[in-house]
């Protein structure tokens, strides 16, 4: 239901923007990520579960798609919409506890942090050097699953809406090249969410182009009241193609 609502609201915003757009970029990427980090549900560090050492989560390739729509209408923000597939799994022998559940034996684990995003931003500078500032809202539809042969099972949803500050910087280079980066960031009560992209983009005279970049997605979350701690870093290079018109 949430995804349908997001899609509807985005479509309603896009209809007038597309009619007056001066730049539209649709970008698809293959992300060769590596995941590291720890999770725990207790205040004792001894109860930490290492995503690699304890759960053997795999570093598989993922995809993400971004679309940028910019227009010349004053005061009305530009828009970036995106979708990221972020799902990894593993199997390992482990004994411990999580969320009050005793886990032992062979543990099959799944971490899903799939999300969509909608960013509204303004071009503060738009020349050889470009500067964008705005707000990016990420809608997570994720889950953590731990299934053990010892009988303990965990199945927790991560269904959150995370508003983040957004900033982008671009440098226009000769021969259709552009060096750019952007960051979405939120910090509150000792916790933070950070999503950073740095890329070199080339666009041909025929609207098609390619880009090579690096993406880092970091969650440092702490809820002392609920004894929930998450420290995850998902980072790696990506290769993408885009259509600009």
By oligomeric state, this entry counts as single chain
Structural class comes to mainly beta
CATH topology: Lipocalin
User: How big a fraction of the residues is strand?
Assistant: over 45%
**CATH architecture annotation name:** Beta Barrel
Organism: hydrothermal vent metagenome
Protein name: Outer membrane protein beta-barrel domain-containing protein
Secondary-structure map:
Layout: H1 2-20, E1 23-31, E2 34-40, E3 49-50, E4 62-70, E5 78-84, E6 87-93, E7 96-98, E8 101-103, E9 106-112, E10 115-126, E11 129-140, E12 142-148, E13 153-158, E14 161-172, E15 177-188, E16 191-203, E17 208-223, E18 228-244
Organism: hydrothermal vent metagenome
Protein name: Outer membrane protein beta-barrel domain-containing protein
InterPro entries: OMP_w_GlyGly (IPR026387)
Question: What does it look like?
Answer:
By secondary structure, the chain is mainly beta. The protein has one domain (2-244): Lipocalin (Beta Barrel). It has one helix and 18 strands. The strands form three sheets. A ten-stranded antiparallel β-barrel has the order 1-4-5-10-11-14-15-16-17-18. The protein has a four-stranded antiparallel beta sheet with strand order 6-9-12-13, with no helix packed on it. A hairpin with a 2-residue loop joins strand 15 (177-188) and strand 16 (191-203). The two termini are 32 Å apart. The mean pLDDT is 87. This is Outer membrane protein beta-barrel domain-containing protein.
């Amino acid at each position: 239901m949430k995804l349908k609502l997001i899609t509807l609201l985005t479509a309603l915003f896009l209809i007038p923007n597309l009619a007056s757009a001066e730049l539209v970029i649709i970008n698809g990427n293959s992300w060769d990520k590596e995941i590291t980090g720890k999770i725990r549900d207790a205040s004792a560090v001894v109860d930490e579960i290492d995503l690699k050492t304890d759960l053997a989560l795999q570093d598989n390739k993922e995809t993400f798609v971004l679309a940028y729509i910019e227009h010349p209408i004053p005061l009305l923000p530009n828009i970036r919409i995106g979708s990221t597939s972020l799902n990894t799994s593993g199997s390992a022998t482990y004994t411990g506890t999580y969320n009050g559940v005793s886990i032992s034996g062979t543990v099959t684990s799944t971490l899903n942090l799939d999300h969509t995003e909608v960013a509204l931003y303004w071009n503060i500078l738009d020349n050889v050097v470009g500067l964008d500032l705005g707000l990016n809202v990420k809608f997570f539809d994720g889950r953590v699953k731990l299934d053990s042969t010892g009988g303990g099972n965990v199945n927790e949803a991560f269904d959150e809406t995370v508003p983040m500050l957004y900033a982008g910087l671009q440098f226009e280079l000769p021969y259709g090249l552009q060096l750019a980066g952007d960051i979405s960031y939120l910090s509150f009560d000792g916790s933070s969410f950070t999503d950073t992209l740095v890329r070199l983009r080339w666009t041909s005279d025929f609207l098609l182009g390619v880009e090579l970049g690096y993406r880092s997605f970091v969650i440092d979350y702490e809820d002392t009241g609920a004894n929930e701690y998450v420290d995850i870093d998902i980072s790696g290079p990506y290769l993408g193609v885009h259509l600009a018109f």
